[in-house]
Amino acid sequence: MSIIFRYLIRQIMVSMLAVSGILLLVFMSGRFIKYLADAAEGEIAAGVLFAIMGYRFPGFLELILPLGLFIGILLAYGRMYLESEMTVLFACGVSEKQLLAKTLLGALPVMLVVGAMSLYISPWGMKQVEHIFNEQRKATEFEMLAPGRFQDFTSGDRVTYTEALSDDKRQLQGVFIAEYDKDGKGVTLITAESGSQFIDEETGSRFLVLEDGGRFQGAPGRLDYNVTEFEAYGLKIVSGQEGSKELEEGLSTLALWTSDDPEDRALLHWRISLPLIVPIVTLLAVRLSRVNPRQGRFFHLLPAMLVYITYLGLLIVARDALADEKVPEWVGMLWVHALFLALGLWLQFGPGWLNRRRLDREGRQRA
Description:
Elements: H1 2-40, H2 49-82, H3 85-91, H4 96-137, E1 151-152, E2 158-165, E3 171-180, E4 187-199, E5 206-218, E6 226-237, H5 253-258, H6 262-288, H7 301-323, H8 334-366
Antiparallel strand pairs: 1-2, 2-3, 3-4, 4-5, 5-6
């Protein structure tokens, strides 16, 4: 039995890792593209993109691993049914209950990993992401510059462009700045061959010192522009306000446990629900993986995925209902788990129970 158990778990884990890897690539690529767009617009620095994705990795993993395990069991056991390996196992004395028990035992490490991610590691990662975003909000305009792009850092009041920027972001080449007046009627254009950052040691103020350029001030459509040529021109760089935004996902599980806020309590139930998904979807997958060789290898995937999507969708609905206080907290999201646990038990044992009842009834009628 130990050899059979290792073989079954190896088949499941290989399929699960392959599916999870593909899903991670898809979801993380989509999120990375969004952050890349934010970096292009100057909202965050390009240098922190990989750090943000690294800290968000546990959050992706806690959602993808249960789905990867579910699909992995469907693919692995489906192939074994098609190639008659399951028929051989059952003929050698392996019962359906033993198959289910071995599969649930193999899913236990996945459940523990998802629980660790959901309850501890993922909130810690989101806390680090929150810290990075807050640091980016207080970064200066000079630190957020990217060469070759027109960048807006002041909601349309100022647009800055530089042809080239040194690696330490202290030297600029080919600078263009367009800034609207406070009344919105005039505009100031500044061009310079080069620029550099200067920090006043006494006050700590930062200045952008432009060299060999010109300043053009006036109103569009009029000819009375004020034109000034300069050898050196200083602009004070204003730092952004230090961010203080807190991400709900960044709250620790202990903080959620002691909180009375309905949204925090709903998030706590959600975190607890994620590891509970693993044994229930394992129970469902073992039964849904049965394939008739005439139906094809992937025939069973569509109804199985509909079951999983319904399960996850009801959990999201239950979380929203709990946050809106439409459901008592003692009920929480357990009713969804109980519903699909009952469905899994019925799929696994219901047909056999009905068949035994039918045989008993026929036996009594013959007697």
